[in-house]
Write a structure and sequence with these properties.
With 141 residues, the chain is an alpha+beta fold. Helix content is 47%, strand content 18%. Helix 1 runs antiparallel to helix 2 (49-72). The N and C termini lie far apart (50 Å). Residues 1-141 form the Myosin motor domain.
């Protein structure tokens, strides 16, 4: 199912920091899932290339935020690191059902099984409303 998180608020309310916390939380969950998948794949004799690639994707999603901030944030009167742009982040998940080996005899909670079925495999970010004049220099005054 498609899910959405909308972060809105006044200038300086902490929207950017809230998004960072959400992404960190998702990355933490994905890290645990990838470790679990790695162990399951190893037990099943599956090579580790795919799991390593997924781990790299999670890191790239996290690393994209500071890169965007470097080009799109500016110091203002109210905030030393004010975002001068908006962004729409789509996280793309792979729907992989838990293997039949671990289903009925496993006493893990249903929420744990739900997490197993959605591994982060990509991201798409649209940036909009960039205040270009503030990126290249400060306005007079």
């Amino acid at each position: 199912k498609n899910q959405s998180i909308l972060v809105s608020g006044e200038s300086g309310a902490g929207k950017t920091e809230t998004v960072k916390i959400c992404l960190d939380h998702i990355a933490t969950i994905q890290g645990g899932l990838l470790l679990k998948k790695k162990k399951q794949d190893k037990a099943a004799g599956i090579k580790q290339k795919q799991t390593a690639a997924m781990s790299d994707i999670v890191q790239r999603v996290l690393d994209s935020n500071p890169l965007l901030e470097a080009f799109g944030n500016a110091k203002t009167v109210r905030n030393d690191n004010s975002s001068r742009f908006g962004k729409f982040v789509q996280l793309q998940f792979m729907d992989s059902k838990p293997s039949s080996n671990s289903s009925s005899n496993n006493k893990s909670s249903s929420s744990s099984r739900a997490y197993q079925s959605c591994l982060l495999v990509g991201s798409h970010i649209d940036v909009y409303l960039l205040e270009k004049s503030r990126v290249v220099g400060h306005a007079p005054g």
